[in-house]
From TrEMBL:
Ranges in a coiled coil: none
Source species of the chain: Allocatelliglobosispora scoriae
Signal peptide feature range: none
UniProt name for this protein: Transposase
Annotated GO MF terms: sequence-specific DNA binding
Length: 106
């Protein structure tokens, strides 16, 4: 027995949405698309979990550990850049004050 055919993401999405909208049952979708009910049920569950995670994270899904680490690094660097910007402004103001002509030199 060979491996079942791979379905493109677009096809899986179309099938899952037709099941969720009530256009057809999982059994009908499996029969029409020549796949198992278990596959369609798994696709449906994956779709719903992905949507749930997207809503919980404010639209950002970060399940990949590498992506999570990179996002933490971005946040850390953004914070450091903000602090450096504030320090630079303080130094500039301090330098302007020290280099300004004194009132007694007139």
């Amino acid at each position: 027995m060979g491996r079942p055919p791979q379905f493109p993401v677009e096809d899986k999405l179309r099938i899952v949405l037709s099941v969720l909208s009530g256009e057809m049952t999982i059994v009908e979708a499996a029969r029409r698309n020549q796949t198992s009910e278990q596959s369609i049920g798994r696709w449906k569950q994956q779709f719903l979990e992905g949507g749930k995670a997207g809503l919980a994270e404010g639209g950002r899904v970060v399940d990949n550990p590498r992506e999570r680490a990179l996002q933490e690094q971005i946040d850390e660097l953004t914070s450091a850049l903000g602090e450096a910007h504030v320090e630079l402004r303080v130094w500039k103001k301090s330098a302007e004050y020290r280099l300004a002509p004194s009132r007694t030199s007139r």
